[in-house]
Structures are given as structure tokens and as C-alpha cells.
Amino acid sequence: MIQVGDKLPAGTLQEFIEVEGEGCSIGPNAFDIQTATAGKTVAIFGLPGAYTPTCSAKHVPGYVAKADELKAAGVDEIWCVSVNDAFVMGAWGRDQGTAGKVRMMADGSADFAKATGLTLDLTARGMGLRSNRFSMLVQDGVVKTLNVEGPGKFEVSDADTMLAQARAA
């Protein structure tokens, strides 16, 4: 599993873009992880799936609510990463009101989850291989803090924990 001090793995994540601009077309766009984090402080949180209960009721809403405070604490971008396709992540982002606050990044084939060792096997529940629930503060592509939840828990990857860590960084 990825550890504090490690560089994020090479790879891409997809984001559904609603409005064409800054070289991005409308629809799914691929972003190189290393390029997208270079020279930035990024709060990344991962979760098992779009539209699932804890993810929709607590995890994403917490980061949306704390987005301004996180940015005031030095966070340039906030990413939500989930093993879903970019279309689902885009629709979920619209439902959650994430525009301008949280980038909804799709890890459709679980490549990022596998490369970081942050996978969660939910095959028995009909969901296949997913991302574990986690959060990390990344500076210039390097993991500065890492908070991985235990099975079925939501205690350390929340926005309040990340905010305290960003303020301390």
C-alpha cells in the first residue's frame, strides 16, 4: 500500500467536463496524475462508489461544505476518486453540487486503486473491485498524509480530518 512519503503512481484518471474550455472538451477527459498534481497541493479522497449511502450522505457533502476552508488552508484542488466511469462521476457530481469545489475523478478500471494498494473487494456484494475509503494530502505528487478507513468505517477520511491536516502542513 502507498505510504506517506511515496510519489503517486503514474497513470490517468478521467473527469467528465460540463463546459468546454482550457483545452478540455465536453465529456470525459483523461488527466495524467503526475502532471495534474505537479506543483500543487491536492486533497484526494477515495470511496467505494457513486450514489452509495455513506459516500453520498457524508463523504462528498463534507468536502463540498469544507471546500473554501480547505482552499484557505493551502489546498489547490480537491479530488474525489472512485471506481466508476466518468459519466457516472459527472452525473453524481451534478447531484452533489461539486462544480468548482471537488473534481469528480473516475478510476474506471481501478488502475489507481490497484497501483496505490487501496483496493476493496466488494464482489460478494455485487460491486466487484472498488477503492477503499481513504483520504490523502498530496504536495507536488508526494503523499504527505494518508488516512485509510477500516472495513465499514467512516472515521478518518472525512473533510474535517483533512482540514486539520492541511492547516498543519
Automatic annotation (TrEMBL):
<feature type="active site" description="Cysteine sulfenic acid (-SOH) intermediate">
    <location>
        <position position="55"/>
    </location>
</feature>
<dbReference type="Pfam" id="PF08534">
    <property type="entry name" value="Redoxin"/>
</dbReference>
<protein>
    <recommendedName>
        <fullName>Glutathione-dependent peroxiredoxin</fullName>
        <ecNumber>1.11.1.27</ecNumber>
    </recommendedName>
</protein>
<dbReference type="GO" id="GO:0042744">
    <property type="term" value="P:hydrogen peroxide catabolic process"/>
</dbReference>
<dbReference type="InterPro" id="IPR013740">
    <property type="entry name" value="Redoxin"/>
</dbReference>
<dbReference type="InterPro" id="IPR036249">
    <property type="entry name" value="Thioredoxin-like_sf"/>
</dbReference>
<dbReference type="InterPro" id="IPR037944">
    <property type="entry name" value="PRX5-like"/>
</dbReference>
<keyword id="KW-0049">Antioxidant</keyword>
<feature type="domain" description="Thioredoxin">
    <location>
        <begin position="2"/>
        <end position="168"/>
    </location>
</feature>
<dbReference type="GO" id="GO:0045454">
    <property type="term" value="P:cell redox homeostasis"/>
</dbReference>
<dbReference type="GO" id="GO:0008379">
    <property type="term" value="F:thioredoxin peroxidase activity"/>
</dbReference>
<keyword id="KW-0560">Oxidoreductase</keyword>
<dbReference type="GO" id="GO:0034599">
    <property type="term" value="P:cellular response to oxidative stress"/>
</dbReference>
<keyword id="KW-0676">Redox-active center</keyword>
<dbReference type="InterPro" id="IPR013766">
    <property type="entry name" value="Thioredoxin_domain"/>
</dbReference>
<comment type="similarity">
    <text>Belongs to the peroxiredoxin family. Prx5 subfamily.</text>
</comment>
<dbReference type="GO" id="GO:0005737">
    <property type="term" value="C:cytoplasm"/>
</dbReference>
<keyword id="KW-0575">Peroxidase</keyword>
<comment type="function">
    <text>Thiol-specific peroxidase that catalyzes the reduction of hydrogen peroxide and organic hydroperoxides to water and alcohols, respectively. Plays a role in cell protection against oxidative stress by detoxifying peroxides.</text>
</comment>
